[in-house]
UniProtKB/TrEMBL annotation:
Name under which the protein is recorded: Amine oxidase domain-containing protein
Native species: Thlaspi arvense (Field penny-cress)
InterPro entries: Amino_oxidase, CrtISO-like, FAD/NAD-bd_sf
Amine oxidase domain boundaries: 61-558
Biological process annotations from GO: carotenoid metabolic process
Molecular-function GO terms, alphabetical: oxidoreductase activity
Domain of life the protein comes from: Eukaryota
Length: 575
């Protein structure tokens, strides 16, 4: 997986105007030539217009998965990216030899294969791309109850519960695992790569995997099968039905839920949580981190895109989606160039930002109203640091990840309350100069955009607010790194705000994504009222997080090819 912080993959990125790392800055390599002004190295139609079968707007994980799979399906695909590096929320950047992740930080299942694998791993498998990873099984947590090293796996966490929460918490945790782990086979029975957005799904998913799903229900027995009906309900309903009362257990479950999907246990689908529990609390489970950082994920997807003839154009800002006779027929770039899409336009932008790309009246009022009424998660604060480990007195056994919760009573979704810290150079020393560390701390989708709205980024008011609102991250870093750490000794120190998110990721209000709670709403599908316009990414099903956006990109790609082509791909990768 990979979702908020957890399997998690935080889409908490932002670009700084500094030197970028290994990916080339003029990133389109195809058989076509690049125009002299650095715009589109694209094939032209008989009319002289640049064109492709499918034009994808945005090179986030969802857009790249969609584009790369379409190329794998032998479609002529062009991915347009406004910035000078691909990856969107998952891009990396480099300053003074320090290579920073801007978003996803904690992964699992990247090297898994088969029907129950991480959707991103399934896409990489389809592209024939591998992703070397370092493995580990623990992270540090700093809670009101105390600080401890939390380990994944079926037994180690019980020791922490006994020490910090007591025997009642241990009993309730055992009760929870006993109830939900049997449901995991049903939650994981349908590979995301088998799904498509038309009736062909009856062939590629329903009929293909019905036997394994039926086998899962039989294995669970009548009570388990009944419990499986709750997979699409809020996870809190399962927790409540088990009468789990221990405050630590309830708080811990809310924390995991929030890190996974940006909502607490009363807003997350049971299927998501059960999938995560199955990944983290089975025998021999591990977490993974890409050896070359999160940027390596992006590079692998781009390699796959190019390997099959797909094209990526950087610094190609889409100004609007062009509608002719009620259909999406292409896009117009900021420089005025028109790019025709013969089959479809796919937007990897958020639902709110996709609206901005369309001419007035192109969509029904009811659809526009529905988008505008969709609740949004808040935004982020970021702290990126580069420092000398010895000079700062950092321990040799420093963990890669640290979670700080200041006050359970305020709730894990309260602003300035939960801080996440990633020090990936612990496992990947090549991300920093010798003997040094790269660190990323952030507030995970809890920073109110309203505090920042309308501020001039050059003003003293803005700078003062940055200093005030970043203090909680500095304190968390000091707690994690120990008394020897001194702020002023950092060689690199950068603070990102919601305005940074809004500006560089082109995200409406710098948002993390839709705050759609299970039981109260569902993430939209991938089609729109406009023929030939589809959407992927965290504004669409299955939702927020790297596994979810990878799945969304795959679903859109599958929907744009025939059922036979889709089935052949599933056969080729053993699904």
């Amino acid at each position: 997986m990979a979702a908020n912080f957890c399997g998690w993959t935080l889409q908490s990125p932002f670009l700084y105007s500094f030197k970028r790392p290994s990916i080339r800055s003029s990133f389109i390599r195809s058989s076509s030539s690049t125009s002299s002004n650095g715009n589109l190295p694209i094939k032209e139609s008989f009319s002289g217009e640049p064109e492709a079968d499918v034009v994808v707007i945005g090179s986030g994980i969802g857009g790249l998965c969609c584009g790369a799979l379409l190329a794998r399906y032998s479609q002529d695909v062009l991915v347009l990216e406004s910035h000078d590096l691909p990856g969107g929320a998952a891009h990396s950047f480099e300053i003074k030899g320090y290579k920073f992740d801007s978003g996803p930080s904690l992964f699992s299942g990247l090297q898994s294969r088969g029907p129950q694998a991480n959707p991103l791993a399934q896409v990489l498998d389809a592209l024939g791309e591998s992703l070397p990873c370092a493995k580990y099984d623990s992270w540090m947590v700093y809670l009101p109850e105390g600080d401890f090293l939390s380990r994944i796996g079926p037994t180690d966490f019980f020791k922490d519960l006994e020490k910090y929460a007591g025997p009642n918490a241990v009993q309730e945790w055992e009760k929870l695992l006993g109830a939900i782990l049997p449901l995991s086979s049903a939650a994981m029975a349908l590979p995301p790569l088998s799904i498509r957005g038309d009736l062909g799904v009856l062939s590629t998913a329903a009929a293909r995997y019905a036997p394994s799903l039926l086998k899962s229900f039989i294995k669970m027995g009548p009570q388990g099968a009944l419990g499986a009906t709750k997979l699409l309900r809020p996870f809190s309903e399962i927790v409540d039905s088990l009468q789990l009362k221990d405050p630590f257990i309830r708080n811990w479950i809310d924390l995991l839920s929030f890190l996974l999907a940006g909502v607490k246990s009363d807003g997350i689908l049971s299927a998501e949580m059960i999938y995560m529990f199955a990944e983290w609390y089975k025998q021999g489970c591990t977490l993974e981190y890409p050896i070359d950082g999160t940027g390596a994920v992006v590079e692998a997807l781009v390699r796959g895109l190019e390997k099959f003839g797909g094209r990526l154009s950087l610094k190609s800002h889409v100004e609007n989606i062009v509608i002719e006779n009620g259909r999406a027929v292409g896009v117009k770039l900021k420089n005025g160039q028109f790019v025709r899409a013969r089959k479809a336009v796919v937007s990897n932008a958020s639902m709110w930002d996709t609206l901005k790309l369309l001419p007035p009246g192109a969509l029904p009022d009811s659809y526009v109203t529905g988008v505008n009424k969709t609740p949004q998660c808040e935004s982020f604060m970021h702290l990126h640091l580069g420092f000398d480990a010895k000079e700062q007195g950092v321990a040799d056994d420093l963990e890669i990840h640290h979670i700080v919760v200041n006050d359970w009573d305020r709730g894990v979704d309260a602003d300035q309350n939960v801080v996440l810290i990633s020090v990936p150079s612990v496992l990947s020393p090549n991300l920093a100069p010798p003997g040094k560390h790269v660190l990323h701390a952030y507030l995970p989708g809890t920073e109110p955009f309203g505090l920042w709205e309308g501020l001039d980024r050059r003003s003293a008011e803005y700078k003062n607010l940055k200093s005030q609102r970043s203090e909680v991250m500095w304190r968390a870093v000091e707690r994690a790194l120990g008394p020897g750490f001194k702020r002023e000794k950092c060689e690199v120190s950068l603070v990102g705000t919601p305005l940074t998110h809004q500006r560089f990721l082109r995200r409406n209000r710098g948002t993390y994504g839709p705050a759609i709670e299970a039981g109260k709403g569902t993430f939209p599908g991938h089609s729109t009222p406009i023929p030939q316009l589809l959407c992927c990414g965290d504004s669409t099903f299955p939702g927020i997080g790297v596994p979810a956006v990878a799945a969304s990109g795959a679903i859109v790609a599958n929907s744009l090819v025939t059922v036979s082509m889709h089935s052949e791909l599933l056969d080729a990768i053993g699904l």
